[in-house]
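tool=predict chain=A
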Amino acid sequence: MRVAVLDFYRNAVSDFQGAIRLRSRGPQVTAPATITLTPADGGSKTFSVTPRQAGVLSFDAQTAAALAGAGNPTLIHDEKPAFTLLWGDIHGHTARSDGGGVPAAYYRYARDVAGLDFAALTDHDDMLDDAEWAESKRITNSFNEPGRFSTLLAYEWTHWVHGHRCVYFKADDAPIFRRTTPPTDNPAGLWAALRRSGAAVMTIAHHTRGLRGTFNGGQAEIDWRAFPPPPDLERLVETYSIHGHCENEELAGPDFKGRKGFVQDALRQGLHLGLMASGDDHSGHPGFGPGAHGEPAGLLGIFAQANTREAIWEALQARRVIGTTGPRIILDFQADGQWMGAEITASAPPRFVAHAWGTAALARFELLRDATTIYRAALDGTSSAVLEAVDNQPTARTHAYYVRLTQVDGHMAWAGPIWVTRRAPS
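tool=predict ok
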């Protein structure tokens, strides 16, 4: 477990010195009652915990000066699960483009302060020269430590008319294709160049309904119909970041009324994109970045077999992911025993099961089919919940199902979709 002491701006208080009292909640554990930080710790410290039983574990922390904090829920299992939930932020910027700080500090904050399991740095393609791209690759690889902290090589392809997409690579070397240089000045050209490169690569679109205002001749909306993403290269979509909601017009708010490019538009079009979230942080605080208009940064959870670059890549490709509006809300979702991101065929009505453990009291749990809510449960302030539902209504075609969880404090989490093809009755 990790404790970090942060100031108002979410910087680590590197010269903090003093004792921090710890109190566990949930299953019985063996853990220190107090830990002491010195300036040598740089404002954060890990401590060992030995669980004695299964359950949902969290910690509260407090100092003599009345500084206090609440920890995140952690699931303790009796046996090793098939997948481990890992938390990361794979969308952020440094002063190499239009953010703050330098690449090494970005990764150090993600690992040592935010306590993330993985991260990627995505400085803008047109602001990186070749030497800076080489630096980004070198530093990203240097922080990749299998079993402790994983990194992915990445950059952002930033087009103000055709939208913004981050480009991610599985390997430790990668080319960069800039939107300023034809033929990679449109999404189709980018995907063609990436395919020709032979790299294991994926793209993820973000703030898909565009930005507030017009920049460089456009609003950065994604046009799903003009440039439908190749299903082997684009598996996920960023439904939330510091720029706010992109799931639908209602959540995005009045500034985006009438826009195209919402995530639900893509799902209705039949695109198979898993819902995730990330930061788009520009402050050097991956995992904690403040929003441009008061929104907190999003966070990505993945269910992976291990904390390695290869296992994280497999989970992203499988769309076995969740997105949240910042808190580490635990959420999973299955249909007939298959995890989110799966594509299944069913002859009988599918059975859906989702589990949630919140960071605050829970308000409601929703199951959506083809972007329409078909099941809604009020949760009355419980800290955990199970959604179980059977859909008897769909026609004999492919439908996209996902779940949306809302807490009393307004924070949200998403898991899915799972695509279910119903066989016609024989």
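The mean pLDDT is 94. Residues 402 and 417 are 4 Å apart (CA to CA).
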